[in-house]
Design a protein that fits this description.
- The chain is mainly α.
- It folds into 2 domains: 211 residues, Rossmann fold (3-Layer(aba) Sandwich), CATH 3.40.50.620; 81 residues, Tyrosyl-Transfer RNA Synthetase.
- 53% of the residues lie in helices and 6% in strands.
- It contains 13 helices and 5 strands.
- The strands form 2 sheets. The protein has a 3-stranded parallel β-sheet. A two-stranded parallel ribbon has the order 4-5.
- The structure holds adenosine-5'-tetraphosphate (AQP).
- Adenosine-5'-tetraphosphate binds next to helix 1.
Length: 337
């Protein structure tokens, strides 16, 4: 019996991966590699919606691969690749966009949010983003996709498009389900715990995976907390609740148990412990990252191998898709002479 196939991507945006990316996503990727056939990719085409500087995007994509491997993604057990190395993704994205209703795409909450943020001046790329995401998933016939709550609507669209395609052209795509494992916790910005920690926000509210230990300690010690001294996860204490969530996810101890441990001890001790745990968590990651970046040939071969493995599946899917929708296959090239 084949192992379930799982797919997930991450955008090489910002200046690195942040604590939330690790706790909410990548640590789960690392854990699912034994029981699943995993495809992990750097979503550089999706990153273009943020209009990055070309040199920065190129550098970030390489660094992101090294960061993923340093965080436990293992290319000998998983297929690790860069989205743009497979032009099949935008090709399938286009074909699926011809099956997507304008109103249907307009209803995506993330698009509506970005419309509000950009005052209606956002790009068409932001509008069609969920369709390319559907192509990423359907290309690999993924059984399951690890997603946060904010991506649930995009997965629904993916399933709808797969069903529509299968109905119109015949059974082609597997309908992906949300990955049944532990849901990733939402980690909040240390300076503004009303919003999530995010690569593109950065600043003192974001702990980068590769931050120096002294920087991590300073950011956590200066995290915005709430009035009072009680270390409790309550609605009126979003800052402390966030730090409790971080400590709980990192140590595996329950929030209730941690509340008991810090009873009557105030915020200082508590913050010092959270900082020490995060520093310890990322120490081996920083070390491994430095080793990987010192060996660019190895990173190149990981990506070449990943693209080759991904291409086998993508070519199989696209040969069938092109045939089913009625695209004329190219004639074989004639030998010269
Ligand atoms: N704060 C967070 N808490 C838990 N999980 C998080 N993720 C991101 N932030 C948190 C998870 O990380 C994965 C990476 O997703 P992405 O790079 O495609 O974009 P994102 O979700 O928008 O992440 P960022 O860091 O906030 O990036 P920017 O600033 O570029 O938008 C996803 O699985 C996500 O859930």
């Amino acid at each position: 019996m084949r192992r379930p196939r799982v797919l997930s991507g991450i955008r090489p945006t910002g200046q690195g991966f942040q604590l939330g990316n690790y706790l909410g996503a990548v640590q789960h990727w690392a854990a699912m590699q034994d029981d699943n056939e995993c495809f992990f990719f750097l979503a550089d085409l999706h990153a273009l919606t943020a209009n990055p500087q070309p040199e920065q995007l190129r550098a970030r994509t390489r660094e992101s691969v090294a960061e993923l491997l340093a965080m436990g993604v293992d290319p000998s057990r998983s297929t690790v690749f860069v989205q743009s190395h497979l032009p099949q993704h935008p090709e399938l994205g286009w074909i699926l966009s011809c099956l997507t209703g304008f109103g249907e795409a307009s209803r995506m909450t993330q698009f509506k949010d970005s419309q509000q943020r950009d005052k209606g001046e956002g790009s068409v790329g932001l509008f069609t983003y969920p369709v390319l995401q559907a192509a990423d998933i359907l290309m690999y016939q993924a059984d399951a996709v690890p997603i946060g709550e904010d991506q649930r609507q995009h997965l629904e669209l993916t399933r709808d498009l797969a069903q529509r395609f299968n109905h119109r052209y015949g059974d082609t795509f597997v309908l992906p389900a949300p990955y049944a494992g532990r849901a990733g916790e939402r980690i909040k910005d240390l300076q503004d715990p009303s919003r999530k920690m995010s690569k593109s926000i950065g600043g003192n509210g974001t702990v980068w995976v590769l931050d120096e230990p002294a920087v991590v300690t300073k950011k956590i010690r200066s995290a915005v907390t709430d009035t009072g001294r009680e270390v409790r996860a309550t609605g009126d204490k979003p800052g402390i609740t966030n730090l409790l969530t971080i400590l709980s996810v990192v140590t595996g101890d329950g929030v209730g148990e941690l509340e008991g441990r810090y009873e009557g001890r105030g915020y200082g001790d508590f913050k010092a412990d959270v900082a020490a745990e995060v520093v310890e968590l990322f120490a081996p990651v920083r070390e491994r990252y430095a080793e990987l970046m010192a060996d660019p040939g190895h990173l190149d071969s990981v990506l070449a191998q990943g693209a080759a493995s991904a291409r086998v599946v993508a070519d199989r899917t696209m040969t069938e898709v092109r045939e089913r929708v009625g695209l004329l296959p190219p004639a074989p090239a004639r030998q010269a002479g």
